[in-house]
Amino acid sequence: MRHSPSVSRTQMTGLTNPATDTRSGSAVGEARPEVLPLPSGLVRLRRLLAVLAVLAVVAATQALGASAQSVDDLRGDIPTGDDLRAEQAEVAELRATALAERASAEGELFDVMFRRDELDDTQRRLAAEIEATTTNLRRIAVEAFITGGGVGTLEYFAAVQNASDFSWRRYLVRSHAGSSRAAVDQLRTLREQADSEVLESIALAEALRIEITVLETELVLLDDRDDAVDEIMPLAEAWDRAAIAIAEGAWGIAPNDKWEQLRFCESTHNYEAISPSGKYRGAYQFDYPTWQTVGGTGDPAAAPPEEQDARARELYARRGPQPWPECGRFLE
């Protein structure tokens, strides 16, 4: 780091002969002007203004960050209305596909059964008996699983609590085993008598029935997804409105602790609270007209807490504490 040469006051005022510049060794032919210090009061004022400017920038940045963070925190996991509408569109597309595939499978099954009707009486009877025996075997397997028919090991004998329990279980095991052996033997005999066309028809019909069952289950699940979207849509739209109001309104968001004080003042945090007159309802004591101005429908006291929170914040963002004449002071 280079250091500036020391210059006497007389040199700075130009009253001495030229000196040698210690940085370059050249002669300095003209005097250096004196740098006069600022008055101490002006220095302090300048420093104070600089500090205030920095604090103002920091405060503004923190306010903007806190506002955006507060919206996200308050909304939590509630999606946006656009997200839910995209979900509805996806469900509608999947439902249309499943319906079309079910209709196709049902048409193929109809064709299979129609062609089976064209077989001779013997082959039609064999097809019907094979399918009935297969169904019976499945029933036996399910019953054996439910009643414990599959047990019969030493672990089971050690686990029984009394003789009657053991006798009952042994009866069930033997019963299912006997039924199963008889059904398997019958199925083997029937399949040996049937020709290849009948067996192919049975296999294809079974596959199509399974496909139809799977598609019907998928349609039920899609209905459940639709119901879930319908249930949460009012919350999403309420928070969408609140976010827009916060961005456009003059009041922004009050801190959470202030909202807690307001709720306690209005309803002691009871989201189902109803005033003695019945006019004011919910945690924020909305009346019906005010509730409707922020997009609410129905009874405010019956709305979910998340919806009441969102609509209260929209109201505050647009009108400030004025809608709560007594308790609004907690938001100031």
Could you please describe the fold and organization of this structure?
The structure is a single chain. It contains ten helices and no strands. It has helices at 9-12, 40-75, 81-117, 121-147, 154-159, 163-193, 196-248, 256-267, 288-293, 305-319. The model is unreliable at 1-32, 57-68 and 150-164 (pLDDT under 50). The chain folds into two domains: 81-235, no CATH class; 249-331, Lysozyme (Orthogonal Bundle). The protein has 332 residues and is mainly α. 68% of the residues lie in helices and 0% in strands. Helix 3 packs antiparallel against helix 7 (196-248) and helix 4 runs antiparallel to helix 6 (163-193). The relative contact order is 0.08.
List keywords for this structure.
0% strand; 332 residues; disordered N terminus; single chain; mainly alpha; Lysozyme; 2 domains
Task: Give a concise summary.
The chain is an all-alpha fold.
